Amino acid sequence: MSTATQFNSELRGQYRAKAYAAASAESPLAPMMIPRRDPGEHDVQIEILFCGICHSDLHQVRNEWSAMPTVYPCVPGHEIVGRVSKVGSAVTKFKPGDVAAVGCLVDSDGNCPECQDGLEQYCLHMILTYNSPDAHLGGVTYGGYSDSIVVKEHFVLRVPSNLNLAGAAPLLCAGVTTYSPMRHWGVTKGKKVGVVGLGGLGHMAIKFAHALGAHVVVFTTSPNKREDALRLGADDVVISRDKDQMRKHRGSFDFILDAVSAEHDINAYIQLLRRDGNLTIVGAPDKPHAIAAFSLLLKRRSLSGSLIGGIAETQEMLDFCGKHNITSDVEVIPIQKVNEAYDRLSRADVKYRFSIDMASLKSQ
Ligand code: NAP
Ligand code: ZN
User: Does the CB atom of residue 284 touch ligand 1 within 6 A?
Assistant: First the structure.
């Protein structure tokens, strides 16, 4: 039986929550009341304290992804940290008052090989935190730009107590999306790692690669981010528009993570890989990349993609952050400034993640 059918057979009550939503690709985000389901026996209800602003929120709100058309109204937000307000009778890991977090996933079928391997993000039936079919209430799921959310216990994470909550929120997407491919491709001490694009994902990638002991080189189009890159843990910074600087690194990288949100020439980075090096794309511009066959085959290089991370790995990443005291560098904003923040994000003008203080929504 599909997850959708199971849930439809047990439709339950709902309550109203405050949120910010976009009514169309051209509309600014504006206040809206949305339905949330009453928590069922396996559910955790969370009062949202902070929600990060991911560039994916911007892509989705502006309907920039042809493969994932946006259903309006759209309530974005998948970097959620909050406090548990209620739990269902079968919930064992959380109790009211606990700090809890939710990332990009809120459900999956639980039985497929991907789910069995703890890779729920690759499950054919995975349900994203927003803009996915909502089997409980109909319509689509609504994300974290809201004062509360109800999520199945399996998809709720624990935040180490030493982490600042505003800075921890972006770990739920920017954190795990950069941590997961680095673990998969064996980033360790002695490896030379490139990070392309110093934004929300990029700055987390620098912190993780540095903490894993790698030699980290950052590629940026913004010369004014050089000092920050070094402070965040980079060993070297390359201004990617400078061909001479790029040439110096040819054939030398074990691994490069591309976290750029817009169209750019990816071959310029593939050429920087050594034999058997890998470039993983996490950035998601809509326009397809043109790949030169020779840049891959000359040194048996590989090109791959990676999508967020599974639940177990997200918890592993959060625990790693607790141990190494890693959080995102955030600019905390009230929700009333969200449209201004989107404009700045589209100009790569944020150091390095906006985190919305949801207390501002209460007073709305
Ligand atoms: P972000 O904070 O806006 O950072 C993107 C960075 O890309 C910018 O800071 C800028 O870095 C660089 N950039 C922007 N425009 C560019 C251009 N025209 N040419 C070259 N570089 C440019 O975005 P983010 O939140 O980190 O997200 C990055 C991308 O990852 C987005 O496409 C997002 O949708 C995607 N994403 C994917 C996953 C996944 O699971 N795979 C998860 C989350 C997000 P510099 O100033 O340093 O050049
Ligand atoms: Zn995201």
Answer: yes
